[in-house]
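Course assignment 3, question 2. Fill in each field.
Student: A.L.
Task: Predict the tertiary structure for the chain below.
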Amino acid sequence: MAISSVFYLRRFCWRVMARDVVMTGISQPARVGKDNGNAMSEQKPRSSHFEKVRAEQLEYNARRESGYRERALRLYPWICGRCAREFDRRNLSELTVHHVDHNHDNNPGDGSNWELLCIYCHDEEHSKFESYVRYGSTTAKKAKTATHNPFTGLKARMEDKDRK
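Answer field:
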């Protein structure tokens, strides 16, 4: 099992245990029986619940590893493609996968439609794309050369005016 799978499994199991503590109010296994001075019998361990949770977590990990984010993180170094900020496991959640052609269904196996961007650069990229869609191109348009000459025939008009 990969290190990340073990990490997620431990984290998920810890959340389940913490949720059970909050719901029951105790951190010990629940006890069955009356408190009449006799030895109380403990409830059977919930190994089937653990196995169910573990199976769900392994299925989730397998689904996630087949997603484009995990594939992109395996293909590319953990560096933002714009600002060159470096990432590690601690802050990897701030690194996002940007689809270059803005089509989230276009996920080629070689990763040619992806680039890794930090959340700030990714937001800026989508803002630029929205502006492009709303207002058109962001580059300056080349002006066409003028074909009309307002001074055409001016000399002849001036001569006609002087003769009168």
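Instructor remarks: Residues 29 and 45 are 8 Å apart (CA to CA). The beta strands are 31-32, 41-42, 95-99, 114-118.
Grade: pending
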